[in-house]
């Protein structure tokens, strides 16, 4: 990632300098969050910080309104939306079950066309997912903090009205930022409110779902199934009950891989560097107060 970000900085018209001389900081070491205080300690001219990912939880305790923050919000959304559609189809068509079978089995599955889809979150993933769902004629409800209409959705409601739509949801998609407010947003009550045939698809963060409650819902046949690109804990330990759950499809947080993401991130960062140098409005700002 470091070499890619260096290219992005120069492509955007910036110069690579030491932190002490920097006005902008492009963070290119996602695993090195602990070194952040040391890096910025002498950066007296620092104005702007660009983070590499859409999810900024590792940096949450470093957020400071002395600086303008931006992240990778929306950059990876096309890739994640594609995975989301794949997971929805896999669940509806029972592909996970057939792939595990060792003998011929009977017909299982549902039609996606006309299904009722509820999406938690009104960000980039949802923005790219809805056009992918459009050919199937699904009835889509977007649940977000504000009830401002979301383009492509049949209806948009606030989080406080979630239980109004859960009982008539065929697929519940989790695609929102992880904050203190959204941690555990899908737990025993939400899972119980879903129809027995409903599927849960989580492509956001594992912490959105109370894992123990999900395990129990699957064991008790009160949920059709779950497709998870993220888990809590993550990585999911060997021997965890979800691994052996026949109605659970798990991928190891690969809805967006480095191969997919870096080619998308490089021009995005270059554009933000160019905007910063020109004094223009930056892409994907982080709200320090909200934490995303």
Automatic annotation (TrEMBL):
InterPro entries (alphabetical): D-isomer_DH_NAD-bd (IPR006140), NAD(P)-bd_dom_sf (IPR036291)
Domain D-isomer specific 2-hydroxyacid dehydrogenase NAD-binding: 94-255
Record keywords, A-Z: NAD, Oxidoreductase
One Pfam family, short name: 2-Hacid_dh_C
Gene3D superfamilies in the record: NAD(P)-binding Rossmann-like Domain
Keyword Oxidoreductase on entry: yes
GO molecular-function terms, A-Z: NAD binding; oxidoreductase activity
Protein name: D-isomer specific 2-hydroxyacid dehydrogenase NAD-binding domain-containing protein
């Amino acid at each position: 990632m470091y070499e890619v970000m260096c290219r992005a900085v120069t492509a955007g018209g910036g110069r690579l300098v030491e932190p002490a001389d920097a006005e902008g900081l492009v963070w290119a070491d996602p695993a090195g969050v602990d070194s952040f205080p040391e890096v910025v300690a002498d950066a007296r001219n620092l104005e702007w910080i660009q983070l590499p990912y859409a999810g900024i939880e590792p940096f949450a305790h470093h957020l400071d309104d002395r600086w303008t923050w931006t992240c990778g919000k929306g950059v990876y959304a096309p890739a994640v939306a594609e995975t989301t559609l794949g997971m929805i189809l896999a669940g509806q068509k029972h592909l996970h079950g057939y792939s595990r079978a060792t003998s011929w089995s009977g017909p299982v599955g549902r039609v996606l066309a006309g299904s009722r889809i509820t999406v938690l979150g009104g960000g980039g993933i949802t923005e790219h997912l809805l056009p992918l769902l459009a050919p199937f004629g699904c009835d889509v409800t977007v649940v977000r903090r504000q009830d401002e209409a979301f383009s492509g959705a049949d209806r948009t409601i606030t989080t406080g009205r979630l239980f109004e739509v859960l009982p008539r949801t065929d697929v519940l998609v989790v695609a929102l930022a992880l904050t203190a407010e959204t941690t555990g947003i899908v737990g025993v009550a939400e899972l119980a409110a879903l129809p027995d045939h409903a599927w849960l698809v989580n492509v956001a963060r594992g912490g959105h779902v109370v894992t123990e409650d999900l395990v129990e819902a699957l064991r008790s046949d009160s949920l059709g199934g779950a497709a998870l690109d993220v888990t809590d804990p993550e990585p999911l330990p060997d021997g965890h009950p979800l691994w052996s759950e026949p109605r659970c499809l798990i991928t190891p947080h690969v809805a967006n891989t480095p191969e997919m993401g870096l080619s998308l991130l490089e021009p995005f960062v270059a554009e933000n560097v160019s905007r910063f140098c020109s004094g223009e409005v930056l892409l994907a700002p982080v709200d320090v107060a909200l934490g995303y």
